[in-house]
Amino acid sequence: xxxxxxxxxxxxxxxxxxxxxxxxxxxxxxxxxxxxxxxxxxxxxxxxxxxxxxxxxxxxxxxxxxxxxxxxxxxxxxxxxxxxxxxxxxxxxxxxxxxxxxxxxxxxxxxxxxxxxxxxxxxxxxxxxxxxxxxxxxxxxxxxxxxxxxxxxxxxxxxxxxxxxxxxxxxxxxxxxxxxxxxxxxxxxxxxxxxxxxxxxxxxxxxxxxxxxxxxxxxxxxxxxxxxxxxxxxxxxxxxxxxxxxxxxxxxxxxxxxxxxxxxxxxxxxxxxxxxxx
Length: 278
Fold this sequence. Notes:
By secondary structure, the protein is an alpha+beta fold. It has a single domain (43-277), classed as tt1808, chain A (Alpha-Beta Complex), CATH 3.90.1570. The protein contains five helices and twelve strands. It has helices spanning 46-49, 76-92, 142-145, 166-174, 251-277; strands at residues 99-103, 107-108, 120-124, 140-141, 151-155, 178-182, 193-199, 202-205, 209-210, 213-216, 221-230, 233-241. It is globular.
């Protein structure tokens, strides 16, 4: 069943009517990212990511790794944007095979070094472990899933997050195929969305467009920036879309759409009845 074929391309009258706003951004002095310990990545931490494969392999102590630290969540806008992306994909994507999409979940390399926490990650053909409370199953361990995520997203909220430098190099070294930087206020980019694709172990700009969206052909999903209202907040929002440019709606957006369509059908039926009576 293709869930999104009959939905409108522009959701102006349902839930996405748009006007720009400014928000309080994350303090540059924050040492840790919400939920996971996302330390500022610098060249001084390079030694944390190196591993001598000539040495004898030792058993990984997963219990010593940080998988959550209960740090308060991000600013209002970023919190909504990070919920919108996973929720809308789960509600409206017609993919049959399993996948994991998650916000604010840490990724550990194989073997684990310092954790990095993208705002959103997408990994195809993987499933959650049965015992999700085991330490090694609580976040995305590349050594456990046997592959990196296909795509990660970073939402820029200030000029100090290093999304286009240190984080880019980090995701590149991890072998993540697509890296999306969304900069709604143009803090570090000249455009609101910038996408990289991993080719020969290096990131290059990725700009294929299909029906006004960035289309990931091998993932069968696209992304587009749409200006509108989400949960009473007006702003530019990063949205998933299908090959026709239709926005993938979140659950409550689908409810609103189908409710309004039902109301419109009822009005049409009432008009037909009046004509028949006359």
